[in-house]
Design goal:
CATH superfamily of chain B: P-loop containing nucleotide triphosphate hydrolases
Order of helices and strands of chain A: HHEHEHHEEEEHHHHHH
Number of domains of chain A: 1
Low-confidence stretches of chain B: none
Number of strands of chain B: 10
Number of helices of chain A: 11
Low-confidence stretches of chain A: none
CATH architecture of chain B: 3-Layer(aba) Sandwich
Shape of chain A: globular
Radius of gyration of chain A: 19 Å
Order of helices and strands of chain B: EEEHEEHEHHHHHEHEHEEHH
CATH topology of chain A: ABC transporter involved in vitamin B12 uptake, BtuC
Helix content of chain A: 55-70%
Largest sheet of chain A: 2 strands, antiparallel
Oligomer: heterodimer
CATH class of chain B: Alpha Beta
Strand content of chain A: 5-15%
CATH architecture of chain A: Orthogonal Bundle
Distance between the termini of chain A: 49 Å
Distance between the termini of chain B: 37 Å
Helix content of chain B: 25-40%
Mean pLDDT of chain A: 90
Structural class of chain A: mainly alpha
Mean pLDDT of chain B: 92
Number of domains of chain B: 1
Strand order of the largest sheet of chain B: 6-7-8-3-9-10
Structural class of chain B: alpha/beta
Strand content of chain B: 25-35%
């Protein structure tokens, strides 16, 4: 592989990882920016999205867990990817709204430490529930062969890069469409305007007669839907197991938050892509250094620009 | 309306920030159409007073009553009070720097959307002021409609903060140190704007560090100290009362 070829392939893989990081980061950053709420259960939403996605797309064979104990050996709808594309974000949205109402809301005025404890507890509960009910084993990823009659599996020949998994290209496309729609929502609608204003100064929004509580529920639901959507696409190319919520989602989402800055959607997108590219770059060259490089980058950002690349909001304890 | 037509009546309120007791049995009244100044040293409780009236939290108002147009609003949430006609331009302007000038001014419209009004118990919402009227009154903002508010100068941001509150069509506009950090020339502009707003019928409650300037612009003054009213009366009376001025205002 030539250096140029390698570089382009890193960029593509970086975009794909970055898109997922960005999807996760957007939710975390708007929830933190608007409600000053630190949500360690954000990874659990990814986990829910991954399982919900897998079970919508196909039927899996259960090997352990309570359901299997009671004689259920098969679980899932087998409706395919397009159905999951509708169902999973909807589930995420509903779970997010409920989470806002019953978990986050009572803790808005409490210190961040309390918020961290309750949401981390919730993350553990969700992870353990999944493990107990569906089983602690690893499930293989599922991706469709065709969408709307077009082939989406197998390799595709790209200029410069050469053979590249067609599905990964589709994922990049879909993810950035969703990111773009989120961006449009935030920039072009009154809801988005209120959320942006609320990220900066939620009290001022209510001083102008706007009931910010409704926007909180919406923001939480939206952030959760994006995280669940990230889980769905994650499940199409990575194995699904109960630990992915924390390992694959929560940690990267927080790193994105640090790099991009709290409360900045643009920061989450750019931060996600930067981190994704760094991780992809190291995975392809010095694979054992990938994780370390990500943390090193985050540490560097913290030293040079503690508020993050695009952060303007000081998050107070 | 209460019997004497008082617009705002604060009756014997006690307000706390956490456990600190800031306002101690404070009472004040604002009559329709006047400019009323709230004076006092730093930490006297001026900001706490207007925040209590606006319904912002903190402070926590634990006793006493706040009446607006004769109606008890003590337990009415902050956003409902805003729509009901109580406007506050808080300290430090607090424009949404990540939104454009036009978007900052759009907030009033959004607050009157049906989805935002549904289920409220506020009677008739105050009538908003048309954005063109606002732009006419603040031509500098008109020129900068699509500029991000964060890129405006301090004076322009103050104008925007006032204009944004005015668009809500408040019956009572409370201004917390509107001249803070502005150049003298700009102070005159803001002062003119406040005078015009008042001429057009909006009642004003003004907090101002500079007692001389405040006495000049206002009809009536309250001086507060350690959360209590120590003087109330026409501004001329305060100007004549050297002892009070020396003791509580240092001028």
């Amino acid at each position: 592989m030539s250096a140029v070829q390698e570089l382009f392939s890193i960029l593509l893989n970086g975009l794909q990882l970055g898109a997922i990081f960005a999807l996760l980061g957007i939710g975390l950053t708007i929830i933190l920016g608007t409600m000053n709420f630190l949500n360690l259960a954000h990874g659990a939403l990814y986990l829910i999205g991954a399982y919900a996605g897998m079970l919508t797309m196909r039927v899996v064979t259960l090997r352990t867990g309570i359901l299997q104990d009671y004689g259920f050996t098969e679980l899932g709808l087998g409706w395919g990817f397009l159905a999951a594309l509708v169902i999973v974000p909807t589930i995420g949205f509903i779970v997010g709204v409920l989470m806002e109402r019953y978990v986050a809301k009572p803790f808005y005025k409490r210190p961040h430490t309390d918020q961290l404890l309750v949401t981390f507890g919730l993350a553990l509960v969700v992870e353990e529930l999944v493990k107990q009910v569906i089983g602690g084993n690893t499930f293989q990823s599922t991706s469709p062969d065709t969408l709307f009659g077009l082939q989406v599996s197998g390799p595709i020949q790209l200029p410069i890069v050469g053979a590249f998994p067609r599905w990964r290209l589709i994922i990049i496309l879909i993810a950035f469409i969703v990111i773009g729609l989120t961006w449009l929502f935030m920039e072009k609608t009154d809801w988005g305007m209120i959320v942006k204003a609320g990220t900066l100064d939620s009290e001022m929004v209510s001083l102008l007669g706007i009931r910010i509580g409704r926007s909180y529920a919406l923001v939480f639901g939206l952030g959760a839907a994006l995280a669940a959507f990230a889980g769905l696409i994650g499940a199409t190319f990575e194995t699904v197991r109960p630990q992915i919520g924390t390992q694959r989602a929560l940690v990267p989402a927080f790193l994105v938050l640090v790099v991009g800055g709290a409360g900045s959607i643009r920061g989450a997108i750019v931060g996600g892509v930067i981190l994704g590219t760094v991780l992809a770059g190291f995975q392809q060259t010095f694979s054992q250094w990938g994780q370390i490089a990500m943390y090193a980058l985050v540490a560097l950002v913290l030293v040079v620009r503690p508020q993050g690349v695009f952060g303007s909001v000081e998050v107070e304890e | 309306m209460s019997d004497n037509g008082t617009l705002l009546a604060v009756e014997d309120i006690d307000a706390y920030y956490g456990e600190s007791h800031i306002l101690r049995g404070l009472s004040l009244e604002v009559q329709p159409g006047e400019i009323c100044a709230l004076l006092g040293r730093n930490g006297a409780g001026k900001t706490t007073t207007v925040r209590s009236i606006a319904g912002a939290s903190p402070p926590d108002v634990r006793s006493g009553t706040i009446r607006f147009r004769g109606r008890d609003v003590t337990d009415v949430p902050v956003d409902d009070r805003s729509i009901g006609g109580i406007g506050l331009v808080p300290e430090e302007r607090r424009v949404f720097s990540n939104l454009t000038v036009a978007e900052n001014l759009r907030m009033a419209e959004v607050s009157r959307n049906r989805s935002n009004l549904i289920g409220r118990n506020i009677g008739e919402p105050a009538e908003t002021v048309d954005v063109d009227v606002i732009y006419e009154a603040f031509p500098r903002l008109d020129e900068r409609r699509d500029q991000l508010a964060g890129t405006l100068s301090g004076g322009e941001q103050q104008m925007l903060a006032i204009a944004r509150a005015l668009r809500q069509g408040p019956d009572l506009l409370m201004l917390d140190e509107p001249y803070e950090g502005l150049a003298p020339q700009i102070v005159n502009d803001v002062e003119d704007a406040i005078g015009r707003i008042n001429d057009e019928g909006t009642t004003i409650l003004l907090i101002e560090q500079n007692a001389i300037a405040a006495m000049a612009i206002s009809d009536r003054c309250y001086v507060i100290d350690q959360g209590e009213v120590v003087f109330e009366g026409p501004s001329e009376e305060l100007e004549a009362d050297e002892e009070i001025r020396q003791r509580y205002l240092g001028v």
